[in-house]
Design a protein that fits this description.
With 90 residues, the protein is mainly α. It has one helix and no strands.
């Protein structure tokens, strides 16, 4: 009888430890994803600022069309997988 109780307690403890480890890993992955999104947003914001500055200078100087093109990599954020994980963050 005591062997059965010991086995049951060990199994319950192992299941609880596994659940805690899985939750910790998922939490770490979620924070890593958030940090990556924030970093990509900052890079996009810097590129948008640069392009905005170029457009303002273009208009201020009275330069004819076409306006300056956007910086390389400005609209590539969708390729980084930013919007592909929306269902995981609900």
């Amino acid at each position: 009888m005591s062997e059965t109780i010991i086995i049951a307690l060990a199994s319950a403890g192992s299941a609880l430890a596994g659940a805690l480890i899985q939750a910790a890993v998922a939490n770490h992955r979620h924070h890593f994803d958030e940090a990556l999104i924030i970093q990509q947003s900052i890079e996009d914001n810097q590129l948008l600022w640069l392009w905005n500055r170029e457009l303002v200078d273009h208009i201020y100087r009275g330069a004819p069309p076409p306006p300056p093109p956007p910086p390389t990599g400005l609209f590539d954020s969708a390729q980084h997988g930013r919007n592909s994980n929306n269902d995981q963050h609900t």
